[in-house]
Amino acid sequence: MKVVSRKPAEAGVTRLGALAKLPVFFDLRDKRAIVAGGGAGATWKAELLAASGARVEIYATDPCEEMRALVLRGAADGELVLHERPWSMGVFAGAAIAVGDFEDEAEAKAFRCAARVAGVPVNTIDKPATCDFQFGSIVNRSPVVIGISTDGAAPILGQAIRRKIEMLLPASLSDWAGAARDIRGKVMDTLRPGAQRRRFWEAFSEHSFRTGASPETAMLEAMIADCRAGTATSSGRVTLVGAGPGDAELLTIRAVRALQSADVILFDDLVSDDILELARREAKRMMVGKRGRRESCAQEDINALMLTLARAGKHVVRLKAGDPMVFGRAGEEISALEAAGIPVAVVPGITSAQAMAASLNRSLTHRDHAQSLTLLTGHSRKGELPATIDWSRAAAPNATLVVYMGAKQAGALVEKLIANGLAATTPAVAIASLSRADEQRWSGEMADLAAGIGTLPADAPILIGIGGVFAALEKKAELPDVRIA
């Protein structure tokens, strides 16, 4: 009987997927690097190699002005030496890396062959067939360095990915990484392996993204002492974040960073799934939305929940549609948090009036039509038009009026405006699901506004605009001949 032997294997282990290229990081400090060529491509690579601490020797018979300027001013680190002559076989001795910038394929092949004889890895710019390695897009928060490769298939995509990562990483991350290197020895000497060290580095990492400021020695030493004594606790806080009108691309960079550092996210009913996808995976998500005439969370309950979570040491992100400070009831939440001594910060968002202007390509303050802009809520605590509105101001003829949460009261709104002197023929627009893929709009005369809103999805959030700036918009629906006297 034949016995089949196999190596022990852990069940359920996933095999590492195929890699187009192996990502590695060369230590070039105080090492020789060869650059052949004097054009713009060679200039960029020479500066990159020098910034890594290398002594870069450049061989170029006719260096461009950009190359000469680089050598004159120097790089961020390392050394740049320009030899105004061609490269030769002897230049590779003792070199750690070589880069060539050639128009001629034959010269690129000769350069690679000569470097290989000397055992030096080669890159020839824009000639992958003669490359031993490739340069990727770089995110520089040194000593944190991120390299991005598309295996040469889509360099522009690599640059786009770099920009996305750049947005998420605060500039101060460089200082935090440097501080980690400097304080590592003290952490190893002071804290026991296991829970104490892990607690410190988790707190350190959290602070590096949370504060946006550079670390201070006294703060780091206090963190070490707290972890050693077992008293380290995470102080809770709340950030009110504006999610904008719905399109995730309209979030601010600071809003994305807040989502990435949140422990718990309390979000409105109108916040899109695309925006929630930008939050860190570990964050707990809780919908606390409030919509007119629907079952909703009471504001007092939301306030109490924020206090409970923050007191438990959580970073709570209160994610609100639009801007928190524009009809977002942020004032009530801030007052409750400040009264309880909970730190609270606000990240503004794009309010719907701004998104409306962008969607319609209409300036809300076009000087030919409007010398003022009024933002009005159409929804009081009782669900009707607020009793305290100054209707004579709202009906000003040379102004733009934008009404939030006013779809249900559109008829009463128009009656009030006409009664206070605004012409029934004033241009008006209503937009449902503003900035989202299913956005729909109606436009026409103000007298037809209520009927126009009736052509839009009943459950969608609707924003109303009234004023001369909305003239000449294409009508999106045929309406019955209805006029309000």
Computed over alpha carbons, the radius of gyration is 31 Å
Task: Output the structural class.
Answer: alpha/beta
**Largest sheet data:** 5 strands, parallel
Q: Give helix % range.
A: 25-40%
Report the average pLDDT across residues. Answer: 88
Low-pLDDT residue intervals, each spanning 5 or more residues: 3-13, 475-485
For the record, the count of structural domains works out to: 4
Strand order of the largest sheet: 3-2-1-4-5
CATH topology of the largest domain: Methyltransferase, Cobalt-precorrin-4 Transmethylase, Domain 2
Name the overall outline: globular
The top-level CATH class of the largest domain is Alpha Beta
**Terminal CA distance:** 100 Å
Count of beta strands: 17
CATH superfamily of the largest domain: Tetrapyrrole methylase, C-terminal domain
Beta-strand fraction estimate: 15-25%
List the helices and strands and how they pair.
Elements: E1 32-36, H1 40-51, E2 55-59, H2 65-73, E3 79-83, E4 95-100, H3 105-117, E5 122-124, E6 137-141, E7 144-148, H4 155-168, H5 173-190, H6 195-210, H7 217-229, E8 237-242, H8 253-261, E9 264-267, H9 273-276, E10 284-287, H10 299-311, E11 315-320, H11 330-339, E12 344-347, H12 352-360, E13 373-377, H13 391-394, E14 400-404, H14 410-419, E15 427-432, E16 440-445, H15 449-453, E17 462-466
Parallel strand pairs: 1-2, 1-4, 2-3, 4-5, 8-11, 8-12, 9-10, 9-11, 13-14
Antiparallel strand pairs: 6-7, 14-17, 15-16, 15-17
Helix pairs in contact: 5-6, 5-7, 6-7, 10-11
